[in-house]
Specification:
- By secondary structure, the protein is mostly beta strands.
- The protein has one domain: Neuraminidase (6 Propeller).
- Helix content is 6%, strand content 46%.
- The protein contains three helices and 35 strands.
- The strands form ten sheets. A five-stranded mixed sheet has the order 1-29-30-31-32, with no helix packed on it. It has a five-stranded mixed sheet with strand order 3-4-5-6-14, with no helix packed on it. A five-stranded antiparallel sheet has the order 9-10-13-16-15, with helices on one face.
- The longest helix has 8 residues.
- The chain starts with a helix and ends with a strand.
């Protein structure tokens, strides 16, 4: 299943921008910024110079969190208690992609415990028990002031707050110092849709909003469960499908004892460049080398093409633009395969059709990257809970 593919491999959304061209040093290596995070999936830089990091959670319910990491690497909590639960492949699922624009933080909430493993490999069924939160598979908008960002000791969401959001209410939280944080639900996607298989009519396909990027008054969201990009009108808070991504043949079917005859697309990272979207397709079990791509989507015509091909487990992309001369950074979760062998990589493409340059090779299962263009520092989150800094000279 596409959702299972995503959760078995990596939770990542890369939230990206178009930046001034930077010369990338081949010798660039990693330095620790912070560690001990709860499976970070995404990051976003604020106009205060802080890095916000979404943490999908641990084995405990409601353990999702968004942290503030200052330029010295000190971590504080922005908001804790966000929905998180063990999903259909026995892993935590909660907050995923984030994007800070102005004083609003957009947050993609993952699928949580809306589904359970079905009776056969590759099948999923609805959770027969009540799910632990009514706001899984949604997008939230969180507003807070610059002073709150720089001074808060942390806010906490409760289950009552989650229900209020599901009811369409705006939730206002207070911290110990009396600072305020306002939360609203932008859209609530269906937790799942029917997806019958020839061998199992009760199969479902889970919604798993993963990464997002705003363009004017539209928010574009990748869905790693339903293999598509959603477009959300922020003025009307309505949503529709922009594009879908088809499955492709599995070149290792019958060779590696895992995976079916086809590979799901599993869209992860997304960025916007010149009225186009760039989306990384992670691809599915057993994650064969050469099947992952970066897709370029024309927003006006909703057409797509391969910008960068022949990758393995690409999870994020950044466009570096100087006077129309565009290079691309591509984040790979792993470099050897099948599955997740070798280090994670950041690759620089001066030309999408030519071999890339390896920037750092010191990453371990990276999940997202964010560039501070003022300092030339690339921040990379890792599945284990670490954030590292990579200098781009």
């Amino acid at each position: 299943m596409n959702h299972q593919t995503l959760k078995l491999c990596v939770r990542s959304i890369t939230l990206c921008f178009s930046f001034f061209l930077l010369a990338v040093s081949v010798s660039a290596q990693c330095s620790d910024v912070t560690s001990g995070l709860r499976e970070p999936l995404s990051s976003s830089l604020t106009n205060q110079g802080n890095l916000l990091v979404s943490e999908t959670g641990n084995a405990a319910l409601h353990s999702g969190r968004i942290s503030i990491v200052d330029p010295l690497g000190n971590r504080r909590t922005l908001i804790d208690g966000l929905p998180s639960a063990i999903n259909d492949v026995n892993e935590p699922a909660g907050p995923a992609g984030i994007f800070m624009r102005g004083r609003t933080l957009y947050v993609a909430m993952g699928t949580g415990d809306a589904g359970r493993a079905g009776p056969a490999p590759g099948t999923t069924v609805p959770n027969p028990n009540p799910i632990s939160s009514p706001i899984f598979s949604s997008v939230l908008g969180i507003q807070f002031s610059a002073n709150t960002e720089n001074t808060t000791t942390g806010f906490t969401m409760t289950t009552a707050d989650e229900q209020a959001l599901a009811n369409g209410d705006t939730v206002v939280l207070s911290d110990a110092a009396g600072s305020k944080l306002k939360i609203s639900m932008i859209v609530d996607f269906p937790n799942y849709v029917s997806n019958p298989l020839p061998t199992f009519a009760g199969n479902i396909q889970l919604s798993n909003p993963y990464a997002l990027v705003p363009v004017d008054d539209v928010l574009y969201v990748t869905d790693g469960g339903r293999n598509r990009v959603w477009q959300i009108d922020l003025l009307t808070e309505t949503f529709s499908t922009l594009v879908t991504f088809p499955a492709i043949p599995n070149p290792l079917f019958g060779i590696v004892p895992a995976g079916g005859p086809f590979l799901d697309a599993v869209p992860t990272g997304i960025t916007a460049v010149d009225n186009k979207l760039l989306v990384t397709l992670f691809r599915g079990v057993p994650f064969p080398p050469g099947t992952s791509t970066v897709q370029e989507i024309d927003i006006a015509s909703a057409t797509q093409s391969v910008l960068i091909g022949n990758r393995k487990t690409a999870v994020g992309v950044l466009a570096l633009d100087e006077d129309g001369d565009v290079d691309h950074l591509v984040l790979q979760h792993a470099s050897a395969g099948p599955f997740f062998g070798g280090p994670g990589l950041v690759l620089r493409f001066e030309n999408p059709t030519e071999p890339p340059t390896v920037v750092p090779s010191c990453l371990v299962r990276p999940t997202s990257m964010t560039l501070n263009k003022k300092t030339g520092t690339l921040f990379v989150t890792e599945y284990s809970g670490r954030v590292v800094a990579v200098p781009l000279n």
